[in-house]
Write a structure and sequence with these properties.
- The complex is a heterodimer.
- Chain A has two domains: 31-132, Immunoglobulin-like; 143-341, Galactose-binding lectin (Jelly Rolls, Sandwich), CATH 2.60.120.
- Chain A contains two helices and 20 strands.
- Helices cover 6% and strands 37% of the residues of chain A.
- Chain A is mostly beta strands.
- Chain A is globular and about 80 Å long.
- Chain B folds into two domains: 1-76, no CATH class; 109-572, no CATH class.
- By secondary structure, chain B is mainly beta.
- Chain B has helices at 2-24, 142-151, 317-320, 348-353, 436-440; strands spanning 27-42, 53-67, 73-84, 93-106, 110-119, 159-171, 178-189, 192-193, 199-200, 202-213, 218-230, 238-254, 258-275, 278-296, 301-310, 336-337, 342-343, 386-396, 402-412, 416-417, 424-435, 446-459, 467-483, 486-506, 512-536, 539-551, 560-572.
- In chain B, strand 18 (386-396) and strand 19 form a beta hairpin.
- Chain B starts with a helix and ends with a strand.
- In chain B, the strands form three sheets. Chain B has a 22-stranded antiparallel beta barrel.
- Chain B has five helices and 27 strands.
- The chains are: A mainly beta, B mainly beta.
- At the A-B interface, helix 1, strand 1 and helix 2 of A face strand 12, strand 13, strand 14, strand 20 and strand 25 of B.
- Strand 1 of chain A pairs parallel with strand 20 of chain B.
Chain lengths: 360, 573
């Protein structure tokens, strides 16, 4: 073989190799990570007069030049309601970053002017604008489990522990939305369980298509911190059992939450003062211990019931663990329980205890 | 008691073997003995927490026994007896079997090796590249070099592995002249517990080579290697696969005075992880290289040049595993320093002298490196994401007064990292040795060496993507023979680096996850003065004084400075 043949092969191979790599770069963009912050960026706000009752949204867009921690704060100038939207990115994408009129905490927005601020971690710049709410968010675009506006659901059960100090009633003095809410609390020193309510649900004929990851439970929980029990919590159980709601147990307790049923649970410790707005992913609920043979296949469309149980650490008797709470009242009131698909009304809370025991 | 028993047994067996050896000459011995003593002194004024000075050392003997029970079989065993400085007989004494190998020839045709072996293939399939910076051209650090390489089994750019190897060849009368085959399978790592319950799998390395002389001028070569794990030997259900194949042609032509060579080669790699039944993080990469060289048969002149492309996704565990992993690696001498007890980074002195920072295990991912010491080709010729050219020149004057080596290369990234812009790398290195005794007519040797390495990395941009890093190394050494075989050694090393770069963070599957910006303004220095008495080239006694340290020129990072008194007595048989 002649030397020139080798060079011909070399040239062929060199030309061949240039077509091998398709990517233009590897790794995240250095400019986005370490570039200069664009202090001249302007915040674009679409729909400055939103009517949230018509499911309108206000969208935000902006480019920062680098990836930063940003925060949008919206404050109602009359109600003093607040909405906080945070993120870490180099742009505000209007398809992702929008406001649906919801609040991050109680109270809710009313028809009012709102001040809007965009701030950045480690950057002194603040971008400001205003929005006029022409219609408020109604928080009804979903599957309402219970809002107590028409009394307690007729096919549900209220089951307080037998004790004269229990409060398991509908009240109208501090509603979250509408005129009524449910008071759940009281005092039992010697036991964990103060009581529970069971609500019958059936979404089998609904158009729900979201997975458990995109299916949210939204509710408000009311408590206070004055002389209150420090070991109080709420258990929320969701059953996907195909059995009858109450197939022959006690007359006022649903059996679809029994140990041999497909039940998912979450435990919420309550240690705040006033209303707290909570959204929880259904996927964060954990399967309870069960008898062998139960198949756990979480599917929002198969939800058949919800139990909300009020519990507190016992302060006397054989089970006493919290003597310091002797004779203290428990308060785990709630209102406006609603499932939503692909959106949460409130800030999504994670990290609740998902222990699988104690279904009462 | 146990050690005494082992010692007695070893000595007894040794005497028996020696006796037998004397009788029928089926046994022969070789080995190495070394005495090492160092006294290190902390010269940092603002470091009151570290010890001011300490001394350490050891004596060791590696006894190599070569047993030939029959003519075609040789069994090799290396037994090490070492004793730490300051310990008494039996206490602090270790006895280990360091190497065991059996090799032989089947039917006078097929060679085989079982046990410990040193393997090397092509530079893109299986090759143990030299550590960063060509320090070891300097004679005054050769004592350190011998220890670092010997203790880490670095021999001729081979990886020391354990397994079985065989090779055989055929010669032909027509079409082609010969065919040579070489196959091996080794186990670089056994299964290991990584947590109390989780166990990673056995890692195996197999491969083969084929070399065919097509005619007297043309040779074809192909190499294949595959690093893989056997999922059933672990319980984490994740196992790597990394096959690499290479093929090349070599055309060589001899004139009465010189040899001319042209090479062309290319190859492909795959890498993936099998998770349960599905492949993840699958990548395919390739490389190609051409080179030409001219060398005079009297070795007075040789030069070569070529070009190389290595794909960003080319992954070859056998050739991209580094000798030094700069991630999670600390030097053994004063590993922490200053009153903040900061972790001391690896410096040029550690690279020269510390055997413990070196790696002997093949890695399935690209290992960490320090860009100031090697940024152009941190993984040798197999460095991925490089396209460029290189040239080398070696010159020895007729009177042997001058020895000159010169290397240069220009490489550019194939694709950018964290940017659409590509970095380029320019490397120049040169070493000149003046054998003054040749022109002065002296009976005793007198030589002076000067070498330099200059490496520049650039990515020009007006924003955060800009990279501009320069590193330069200057070495000066002289060796003066005063009495017969007694040399005075004087040396100086200076390493300077200034500029900025981005360190890459990679996932467990080798994907770049992020970058960390870093600025350098560093100066490493090392002064050496010593005496070396050479009984023979491999038998010497060396007494040295080293003063070394690093200035970071940064008020947030403490500088360090140390000195060492070193004594080495080495006998290699």
């Amino acid at each position: 073989m002649k030397t020139r043949h080798i060079y011909i092969l070399t040239i062929i191979s060199i030309f061949t190799i240039f077509s091998c790599t398709k990517e233009k770069s590897e790794g995240p963009s250095i400019n986005e990570l370490y570039g200069d912050f664009d202090g001249t960026a302007s915040l674009l706000v679409s729909n400055k007069n939103p009517n949230f009752s018509n499911n309108e949204v206000t969208k935000f867009s902006c480019e920062f030049g680098k990836i930063v921690d940003w925060k949008i704060s919206i404050t109602g100038l009359v109600s003093n309601a607040k909405k906080i939207i945070t993120g870490n990115s180099n742009i505000l994408d209007s398809n992702i970053n929008f406001w649906d009129g919801s609040a991050s905490e109680f109270p809710f927005f009313i028809e009012e002017n709102c001040a809007l601020e965009l701030t950045f971690l480690y950057q002194p710049d603040t971008l400001r604008d205003t929005v006029l709410i022409t219609g408020t968010q109604l928080y009804d675009d979903g599957y309402i489990v219970a809002d107590f506006e028409n009394g307690f659901p007729v096919d549900g059960y209220i089951k307080p522990q037998i004790n004269p100090d229990q409060t398991f009633v509908i009240a109208d003095d501090q509603p979250l939305l509408g005129d009524y809410y449910f008071q759940m609390g009281g005092k039992i020193n010697f036991d964990w369980a103060l009581g529970k309510i069971d609500l019958k649900l059936d979404y089998s004929s609904s158009p729900i298509s979201a997975s458990a990851e995109d299916f949210y439970l939204n509710l408000g929980i009311l408590s206070d911190t004055v002389g209150l029990h420090t070991g109080q919590f709420m258990n929320i159980l969701i059953s996907e059992s195909d059995s009858a709601f109450n197939s022959g147990g006690a007359a006022d307790v649903a059996t679809i939450f029994d140990n041999n049923e497909e039940v998912y649970k979450l435990k919420i410790y309550i240690d705040w003062d006033g209303w707290k707005l909570i959204s929880i992913r259904y996927s964060d609920f954990v399967a309870t211990n069960s008898s062998p043979g139960v198949t756990f296949a979480k599917n929002p469309k198969d939800i058949k019931g919800m139990r909300i149980a009020c519990q507190a650490c016992p302060s006397s008797g054989a089970s006493a663990q919290c003597e310091e709470n002797f004779d203290r009242m428990v308060r785990t009131d709630f209102d406006h329980i609603i499932f939503t698909e692909n959106r949460a009304f409130f800030d999504v809370i994670t990290g609740f205890v998902g222990d699988t025991w104690n279904k009462n | 008691m146990k050690i005494n028993s082992i010692l007695f047994t070893v000595i007894f067996i040794g005497i028996q073997i020696f006796t037998v050896a004397q009788q029928d000459e089926k046994i022969r011995f070789s080995g190495l003995t070394r005495s090492f003593f160092s006294r290190d002194v902390n010269k940092i004024d603002l470091d009151t927490t570290s010890t001011k000075n300490f001394s350490s050392g050891y004596n060791l003997i590696d006894l190599n026994t070569h047993i030939n029970p029959i003519k075609e079989i040789e069994v090799f065993a290396q037994l090490r007896i070492s004793n730490q400085f300051g310990s008494f007989f039996g206490s602090g004494t270790n006895i280990i079997v360091r190497q065991l190998t059996a090799k032989g020839v089947l039917g006078n045709r097929i060679k085989f090796t079982i046990g410990d072996m040193y393997l090397k293939q092509n530079k893109f399939t299986l090759h143990n590249y030299d550590e960063e910076l060509p320090f070891f051209n300097s004679d005054f650090v050769s004592s350190y070099r011998d220890i670092v390489h010997y203790e880490n089994f670095f021999m001729d750019n081979r990886w020391r592995l354990q397994g079985i190897q065989t090779n055989f060849s055929y010669e032909f009368d027509r079409f082609i002249k010969s065919l040579e085959f070489d196959f091996f399978i080794t186990r670089p790592r056994g299964n290991q517990y990584i947590t109390n319950l989780n166990r990673i799998s056995d890692m195996l390395l197999s491969g083969g080579s084929l070399i065919s002389k097509i005619n007297s001028n043309l040779t074809f070569e192909s190499n294949y290697i595959n690093l893989f794990e056997i999922p059933s030997t672990g319980n984490i259900n994740i196992s790597v696969r990394n096959p690499v194949i290479q093929g090349g042609l070599n055309y060589h032509y001899n004139t009465p005075k010189a040899k001319l060579e042209h090479n062309i080669q290319g190859g492909f790699s795959e890498r993936s992880w099998l998770q349960f039944d599905s492949l993840t993080n699958y990548t395919v990469g390739m490389f190609s290289e051409f080179s030409s060289s001219y060398s005079k048969k009297d070795s007075s002149l040789s030069f070569s040049f070529g070009g190389r492309y290595v794909d960003p996704n080319f992954r070859s565990s056998g050739s991209q595993t580094r000798r030094i992993n700069f991630n999670d690696n600390t030097p053994s001498i004063y590993s922490t320093y200053s009153n903040d007890e900061s972790q001391r980074p690896i410096s040029i002195f550690d690279i020269i002298s510390d055997p413990t920072i070196y790696n002997q295990d093949l890695s399935t991912n690209l290992m960490g490196f320090n860009p100031i010491y090697s940024n152009s080709l941190p993984f040798g010729d197999a460095t991925p994401n490089r396209l460029g050219v290189f040239a080398k020149l070696n010159l020895i004057s007729k009177n042997k007064f001058l020895e000159l080596n010169f290397n240069s290369s220009y490489f550019e990234e194939v694709i950018g990292q964290g940017s659409l812009l590509k970095r380029n790398f320019v490397l120049f290195s040169g070493n000149t040795k003046f054998n003054l005794h040749e022109i002065l007519g002296l009976n005793k040797k007198l030589s002076v060496s000067v070498s330099m390495v200059d490496e520049t990395t650039k990515r020009s941009s007006s924003n955060a993507e800009n990279v501009n890093l320069s590193s330069s190394q200057l070495n000066f050494s002289s060796s003066i023979e005063t009495l017969d075989d007694l040399f005075i050694q004087l040396g100086y090393k200076s390493f300077n680096s200034k500029g900025n770069e981005y360190l890459t963070t990679r996932s467990a599957y080798g994907m770049i996850q992020g970058f960390t910006p870093i600025n350098y303004n560093q100066n490493d220095n090392m002064y050496i003065a010593g005496l070396k008495y050479k009984f023979r080239p491999n038998v010497y006694l060396n007494l040295q004084y080293n003063l070394w340290g690093t200035n970071f020129n940064d008020s947030n990072i403490s500088d360090f400075k140390y000195q060492r008194l070193l004594f080495i007595f080495s006998v290699k048989l």
